[in-house]
Amino acid sequence: MSDIVERYDIPEQHFWLHGPRSGPAVEFDARTGLWNVYGYPEMHEVLGGPATYSSDTVRVVPKELMPGEDDFSLKGFITQIDPPKHGKLRKLVSSAFTRKVVADLEPRIAALTHELLDAARERGGFELVSDLAYPLPVIVIAELLGVPSGDRALFKQWADALFQRDTEVSLNRTAEERGADIEATMRPWKEMSAYLAAHAAERRRQPRADLLTRLVEAEVDGERLPDDQVVNFAIVLLLAGHITTTMLLGNTVLCLDAFPEQQERVRADRSSIPIVIEESIRFLTPFALLGRATTREARLGGVTIPADQMVMIWLAAGNRDPRRFPNPDVFDPDRDPNPHLGFGRGIHFCLGAPLARLEGRVALNILLDRFDALRTDPDDPVQFIPMPSLTGVRRLPLIQG
Ligand code: HEM
């Protein structure tokens, strides 16, 4: 068992943090009905082969596990779309969500970080997640989209309802569990869709200088995004845009607490912040799990996976595969290269990676400026998000210093 597991009481379901795995790189779990991929080269192959490993996973989920089609549509949900449609949508949204749009946010991210830290100082006590790591990315993405950042309590409610459950990932659930799951997901989903649809409709009537307007107006080959697809892309941004970056900030500070020599080093040489962030994403991978569905029979890691099977890609385990990362349980920012899969790989590679990296770099720099030491409070323990598909802290109280 590694030190951090005991020290921070890391939940059992984050099995990749509890020492090396001994099983095969790919295996079928009869209990859940899922194929699990744990090995790095194998997941490289899956993510690089969208023709065999499709992102349209809903196709293989039994109908009774899904909400009715009237309630729920994943149309335009970019993470679920395969080529050739995916390429077209990605081009369209990339034309609105450009690197320049992101780079221009740097001064605002810095100003917000200072504001949030000033407010925390006035209140006294410092809990990194609620004081900074959660509000910062939410305010940034809300301002970017053009929805009121004052509504962030609502966004948190929706995100918590969708992401803070600790249910096991499985295709074999009882009717009762399925009903409860669907209900728990649908309510926030519908509210969020209605909220963003109202804002998108407003932008069609009255354009503003925001990302929602750019999405509504974006055009590729003379075609625009239909309303439901604008809404679904905005949902992806609102959810992906804050939960994962919240985890990135919390996890990076946790790594600097766990490895004080690394904290000393990055304090003395701020140019190493980017490599610390990359290693933090490898070491504590925020988005731990992705899904794909086989379109045909496939050979992977020495086993044969039939067509129409759900394949679970445990990115967090792949990022600790000793075949790719020597001494994977060592936090070593000097890994060069550090080809972690934390932002995915291939055609679906995270579109928000430049924003996540920028927020991480700016916030960490300011935290190091304003705190002589970033240290967790032994009397007020760290808490991890229990959901097995996410690695991140939901509470990280720090000693003021
Ligand atoms: C895709 C992780 C931050 C927007 C992905 C994927 C991963 C990922 C693993 C691949 C999904 C797949 O292959 O099925 C992360 C992590 C983040 C982060 C770890 C922070 C540390 C963000 C941010 C945004 C964002 C800040 C936007 C504001 C997206 C979008 C996609 C995506 C739109 C879909 C791309 C596509 O399907 O073509 N992200 N993400 N992400 N991410 Fe992120």
Automatic annotation (TrEMBL):
- InterPro entries reported in the protein's UniProt record: Cyt_P450, Cyt_P450_B, Cyt_P450_CS, Cyt_P450_sf
Q: Name the domain of life this protein comes from.
A: Bacteria
- CDD domains documented for this protein: P450_EryK-like
KW Iron (keyword) present = yes
Record key words, sorted: Heme, Iron, Metal-binding, Monooxygenase, Oxidoreductase
Mind telling me which Pfam families this protein's record contains? Answer: p450
Q: Which GO terms describe its biological process?
A: cholesterol catabolic process
MF terms per GO, please? cholest-4-en-3-one 26-monooxygenase activity; heme binding; iron ion binding; steroid hydroxylase activity
The UniProt similarity line reads: Belongs to the cytochrome P450 family.
What name is this protein filed under?
Answer: Cytochrome P450
Q: Which organism is it from?
A: Planotetraspora silvatica
